[in-house]
Structure formats: structure tokens, C-alpha cells
Amino acid sequence: MIRALWTAATGMEAQQVNMDVIANNLANVNSAGFKKSRADFQDILYQTTKAAGASAADGVEIPAGVQVGLGSRVAAVQKIFTVGDIRQTSNDLDLAIEGDGFFQISQPDGTTGFTRSGAMKRDSTGRIVTSDGYPMFPEVVIPQNATRISIAENGGVEVFLDGEQLPSSVGNIELVRFSNPAGLSSMGRNLYSETLASGAPIVGTPGEAGFGEVSQGFLEGSNVSVMEEMVAMIAGQRAYEVNSKAIKAADEMLQQTNNLVR
């Protein structure tokens, strides 16, 4: 009976993590480029009191054994990298990737972060940076006297300078992709970092070799579906509730056993 108490407790712990994941998805429903997570579960160990296929006393083979499971646990919390809804903003430095790829961002510690959020800005020196002031890599600098910025689908950045009729090239935006993007480590601020599981970044030109194209004046939103998350939240809540009732039922049965000695 004690085993049932601990088994049901593992189910409650697993559903608590599931609820934490769902809450984070809903909290970031309006975060540009955010990718939702999903909790994956698996069963734990089994206690075997009779092995299937064992021989009985008279030499007959036992067709089915006796195994009792010890509950469940969270096996992984996986990022789902489906493309979110793309909306038009008409802002020159709002960029959306239509397809596979990540923008590269130079971080203060010298490492490179990766993001799907294309809500870029200009800093005081004209560099294209994130909302936290981290510059894009390779660095692209917009001249102070630029009157218009044009970013092509292949990542080429051109500007129209004051008093000039022809555009001037000031750099190119490169994208990277990974063999296993689900293996990337989330760092917050819409940034990811490379891990052994993700593989090394593959650098390429937007629109070529399977990379997505860059769309200027558009922004990719979160891929979180509020309806799906609400349904998952209700299911998780009910699973948590039924596990708590299993604990209560096991406790009542244990109480009945204790009352036998009175």
C-alpha cells in the first residue's frame, strides 16, 4: 500500500512540471520568435514478482508475468521549432525568417547566440542590435545619414544615403541552422546557445541550400496556440487531481489495515 502512495506522488510531480511548461508557453504567447516547449513523460522502474516465460513447477511456461510499475517522470522538455505566425509591421528593422534558420547575435562574453526574433534596432553607432543591445553577427552598421534601409530576401543590406540616388551596400545578414535544433540550450532573451546535442552551426545565405528567406517589415510571432495550451492545462490539471485521489484512496486503504489491529 505504501508503494501506491509513492507511485501516485510521482504522477503529481510529473504533472506539476507539465503545468510549469504550459505556464511558460502561455506567458510568452506574445514574445517575438518564441518557440513553445512540450514535456515528454516516461514510466519508471517495474518491480517483477513473476517473470513472463518462466517455468512453473510442472514445467509449464508462464505466459504472462507479474510486474508493478513505480510511477512516471519527465523524460524531456523539448522545444518545438515550428514557424510562428508572421505579421506585417512595416518597420524597416523588423525581420522574419520564412523557413529554416537563426539569426546570429554577438554576446558580451564573446560567444554567439542564436535567435528567431527579428525585432532589431539601431544603437548610437548605427549597428543593428537586439532589444538588449547585442549586435548582429556579422556586424552591420547603418550610416547616420541613411534615409532608407533595404534588406533583400538573400540578406543583403543596402541603404540610401542623403542626397544619393543609388543604394550602397553595407553588409549581409547570414543565417545558421542545426541538425538538431531541439538540442539548443535556451538562455532567455529569445536567445539559444549551441550544445553537443544540437551539433555545430551550419552557416549559409538566406534563400539558399534550404535556408529560409529574410522578409523585411515582418515579424515572426510565438508559435504558441492558446487553445492547445488551455486544453493541455485542463488535461494536466485532471491528471494531477486523479493522482491526488489515488493517494487519498491508498491512504484510506492503509487506514483500514491499521484499524484491523484495534
List keywords for this structure.
alpha+beta; three-stranded antiparallel beta sheet; 262 residues; 32% strand
- Structural class given helices, strands, pairing? alpha+beta
What's the β-strand tally? Answer: 20
Beta-strand portion reads: 25-35%
What number is the mean pLDDT?
92
Structure commentary:
By secondary structure, the chain is an alpha+beta fold. It has two domains: 2-53 and 66-80 and 224-259, no CATH class; 86-220, no CATH class. The chain has two helices and 20 strands. Helix 1 packs antiparallel against helix 2 (226-259).
Question: What's the SSE blueprint?
Answer:
Elements: H1 2-27, E1 37-43, E2 46-50, E3 66-69, E4 72-79, E5 86-88, E6 95-98, E7 102-106, E8 112-115, E9 121-122, E10 128-129, E11 136-137, E12 146-151, E13 156-161, E14 168-172, E15 175-177, E16 185-188, E17 191-193, E18 202-204, E19 213-216, E20 218-220, H2 226-259
Antiparallel strand pairs: 1-4, 2-3, 5-20, 6-19, 7-8, 7-11, 7-15, 9-10, 12-13, 13-14, 15-18, 16-17
Helix pairs in contact: 1-2
Gist of the model:
The chain is an alpha+beta fold. 23% of the residues lie in helices and 32% in strands. It has 2 domains: 2-53 and 66-80 and 224-259, no CATH class; 86-220, no CATH class.
